[in-house]
Write a structure and sequence with these properties.
The structure is a single chain. 43% of the residues are buried. The radius of gyration is 26 Å and the shape is globular. It folds into two domains: 287 residues, Aminopeptidase (3-Layer(aba) Sandwich), CATH 3.40.630; 154 residues, Alpha-Beta Plaits (2-Layer Sandwich). Helix 2 packs across helix 5 and helix 5 crosses helix 14. Helices cover 36% and strands 22% of the residues. It has 491 residues and is of the alpha+beta class. The chain binds zinc ion. Zinc ion (ZN) binds next to loops.
Length: 491
């Protein structure tokens, strides 16, 4: 190598390093600086006791059995009436689809768009065989070690109790909202919300209501979940992925196992080849849209190498995309995912079946559609395999932009209550009842400040579900501040 070339290369490296450093430093924090919110007094023991009482009511929703646990749902309604007298005296209460609840707190200004708080009071059952793994039985409703334990404490009775308590407290203080506040609590969220939230939305639509924003369960206040980020992160779900279930069917002449057809021509072989192609040749991952905004927001809050790498995506993007695509949780934010979930063929060891079937679960990224998925599948399985969408499906929801006034309000509320917490938009890869509000809401947020460390994540729909009493009080303050701050003009 000539000396001149070497010097040239060194100069180039120096320029590159300077650009990387400049970029890293230039991308300052995007976090709002707001004064701390006044601390609202919360009777922690009373709120915990109310949640524990609700946990004892086994409001498990069951597919195809709308009247399952009817007595438990009715008892829950009665418990709410007993525990929140002001709410029940001042708000209009309607029961929709048997057990779902709609409360309306009429605002003083009919021209101001209403706001909806959402929760749900049905729960998933305890997985059979896991009962003994619970430290406290799932429906005992015990308060111990600073926590309320049991099914529904996190998902989602804790939010319901906190929302009602916030309104109860505001009513006690004589608060009169300018905007109408609606509280929706579904009784069949875990089944898709068709009898609850969907019917409530029909009702609200018929009344001509259109919402400034809707806030529902979804992402949480994570601690130690984002690699490289020391601070807790309030990840606000600004969009929900869509989904479609695709069934593949391959057919061939059945036969005896002793005289198989040529390689690649049996139903199982054709189906296997199709599955192999779909597994190997998936939608491409890309750091764009919500995921891009998430990492752009988090980067300045990170330390060390992560900050440098994420602040210089112009250079590091292929590397970062490959890295994120490796972990299932981040992979799901970058692409429409392909999951092979069911295979069915044959019923005897020596009979070659005439049909083989498989089911794939696709979760659709904003930007792709159900049609795109079907096209993707057809292009890879070839003409020999039938492709059919089965069961329910939805396209992804629209993305709520972070420059919406309601996002600013949510962000201010969070920063005022949780000053050391980084607020960032993110993609919610599961589903919530709020999806039914898409036609009548300007903005939808899937978030509640439930604190979760990596060790807590398996508790959701899992074993030893719980919420700390302190966190429950934080939820009350969050909803209180969110509603009280609505009528205060932003500065
Ligand atoms: Zn839930």
């Amino acid at each position: 190598m000539s000396k001149r070339l070497l010097l040239g290369l060194l100069a180039l490296l120096a320029v590159l390093a300077a650009a990387v450093a400049a970029n890293t430093l230039r991308q300052g924090s995007r976090q709002l600086q707001v004064p701390p919110a006044p601390v609202v007094q919360v009777d922690e023991a009373a709120v915990a006791d109310t949640l524990a009482a609700l946990v004892r009511l086994r409001t498990v929703s069951v597919v195809g059995e709308p009247q399952a646990n009817a007595d438990q749902f009715r008892a829950l309604h009665a418990e709410l009436q007993k525990r929140f007298p002001r709410v029940h005296a001042s708000l209009q209460r309607e029961v929709v689809g048997d057990f779902s609840l709609l409360y309306t707190w009429k605002g003083s200004d009919p021209s101001a768009r209403p706001v909806a708080l959402m929760a749900h009071h049905d729960v998933v059952p305890v997985a059979p065989g896991t009962e003994s793994a619970w430290t406290v039985p799932a429906f005992e409703g015990r308060i111990a070690d600073g926590h309320v334990w049991g099914r529904g404490t996190w998902d989602d009775k804790g939010n319901l109790v906190a929302q009602l308590q916030a309104i109860e407290t505001l009513l006690a203080a004589g608060h009169q909202p300018r905007r109408t506040i609606v509280l929706v609590s579904g009784a069949d969220e875990e089944l898709g919300g068709l009898r609850g939230a969907a019917e409530i939305v029909k009702l609200l639509k018929a009344r001509g209501q259109r919402f400034e924003f809707v806030i529902d369960e979804g992402l949480v206040l994570t601690e130690g979940v984002v690699p490289g980020l020391q601070a807790p992160a309030a990840l606000v779900g600004v969009a929900e992925k869509g989904y479609i279930t695709v069934q593949l069917t391959a057919k061939a002449a059945p036969g005896h196992g002793s005289m198989p057809p040529p390689a690649g021509t049996s139903a199982i072989a054709k189906l296997s080849a199709a599955l192999q192609r779909l597994d190997q040749d998936q939608f491409k991952p890309a750091l764009q849209g919500v995921a891009r905004e998430l990492f752009d927001t988090l980067a300045p809050e990170m330390g060390g190498l992560q900050r440098v790498v994420l602040s210089n995506l112009w250079l590091t993007r292929p590397l970062v995309e490959a890295q994120l695509a490796k972990a299932p949780s981040t992979n799901a934010m970058l692409r429409t995912t392909t999951a092979l979930t069911m295979v069915n063929a044959g019923n005897k060891f020596n009979v070659i079946p005439g049909q083989a079937q498989a089911v794939l679960d696709f979760r659709i990224l904003p930007g792709d559609t159900r049609e795109d998925v079907l096209r993707h599948v057809r292009a890879r399985v070839g003409p020999d395999v039938e492709v059919q969408a089965v069961g329910g499906s939805t396209d992804p929801t629209p993305v709520t932009p972070t420059d919406a006034a309601s996002y600013r309000h949510l962000e201010r509320t969070l920063r005022a209550l949780f000053p050391d917490t980084v607020v960032a938009p993110a993609l919610y890869v599961a589903g919530s009842d709020s999806q039914h509000f898409v036609p009548i809401a300007d903005a939808i947020y899937r978030f509640s400040p439930i604190r979760a460390t990596p060790a807590d994540l398996p508790r959701l729909h899992g074993t030893n579900e719980r919420i700390s009493i302190r966190n429950l009080a934080e939820l009350v303050r969050f909803y209180h501040q969110l509603l009280a701050g609505l009528d205060v003009p932003a500065t």
